[in-house]
Write the structure tokens for this entry.
Amino acid sequence: MPRKAPERFHKSPSLNEVRYEIRGELAHRARELEARGIRIDRLNIGNPGIYGFRTPDHLREAVAERLAESEAYCQEQGLLEARAAIVARERRRGVRRAAVETTFVGNGVSELIDVALRALLAPGDEVLVPAPDYPLWTASVILNGGQPVHYACRPEHGFLPELAELEALLTPRTRALVVINPNNPTGAVYPEPLLRGLAAFAERHGLVLMSDEIYDEITYDDARFHPIAPMVEDTVCLTFGGLSKVHRACGYRVGWLSLSGALERADDYLHGLVLLAALRLCSNVPAQWAIAPALEGPDTISALVRPGGRLHASREAVRGAIANSAFLDAPPSAGALYAFPGVDTGRIPDFDDHAFALSLLEREHLLLVPGSSFNVPYRNRFRVTFLPEASMLAEHFARIERELARLADAAWPARRAAGAR
Ligand SMILES: Cc1ncc(COP(=O)(O)O)c(C=O)c1O
């Protein structure tokens, strides 16, 4: 029988609950304004290359030198030389069981987050995800048939998880615990005792521990990053890392996933990971040549994050702007590339993060990300990246302050009138 052509073509219902607002409607609107010749300043995305950061020369040269050897598919888990460098680094960090057979190179951590969850989840399985989170984690759990269960990392607690609360979120369907350290979007860096507590919690309940450590070497002042993998013996630990941030090579699309811990109980899961890696043949080969020089060559990030370095200066500029604001508050970012300030709803009672982001874009031509895009229930925060130069950030925050003052004025017309008398 001839089929009637559909009136409209619809996206899959599996996408209905999936959101990624960092590149969502606001970013589209920004592009429309730019197409009309309006200059938009961006605080919305952690993409070092668009703010003048360069990938270190020795990585670029390594890729160029090996281009002629990059024309074939490689082994599905990645070039052996690259995986060996990842394993050597994990071992230096005390991860005894890291091995090339249980290491995967992917097209960014993004691809590997999807692969790791797809290989694990049955429909309805639950995954403990931090709130706020990097929203790909929540999206990937949903896309793979799982149920994200968010655990709160509250501002009043330095954006750190509270171990006692995690227990109450467990159900017989809980399969995995996601940790993002250093954290996007909050800039929190987790102290060692907390990480030990999270590792023990995952071990006690047989959860796969997935630790997104893509910002591992981006910490400021006294903050110290601790990898969680060496703390895990009695369950499976997945460590995610990559070249995008520490090595400022987002466009190379290189990430890795290293399994460790109770691998003797993970052979079936490992088969699933290998199968999914094979189905996509392999990840981009030329860029994989940058992995060994990145992990074994000169350190290029410390000079940026220590006092006097560009990232340190930018983070200080953001910290200063928040401290001097009449409306904003946030614990200082200890790591990563972001701050997640909150707006005083005593001063602006109806503050709505989306409405604010839109009016800031339309009036001040500045793009940031509303806090609720990061899967939190409140709507009084937003995320900014501190990748622009410090002087630019000071100017951008002056515009944010101006827009907040407008909103405060509009919220309290009576007070304004009284002030005018
Ligand atoms: C916490 C976190 N994980 C993963 C990613 C994705 O990184 P990649 O470029 O390796 O796909 C990002 C990117 O911003 C991130 O912030």
User: Anything to note?
Assistant: The CA atoms of residues 244 and 250 lie 4 Å apart. The chain has a mean pLDDT of 95.
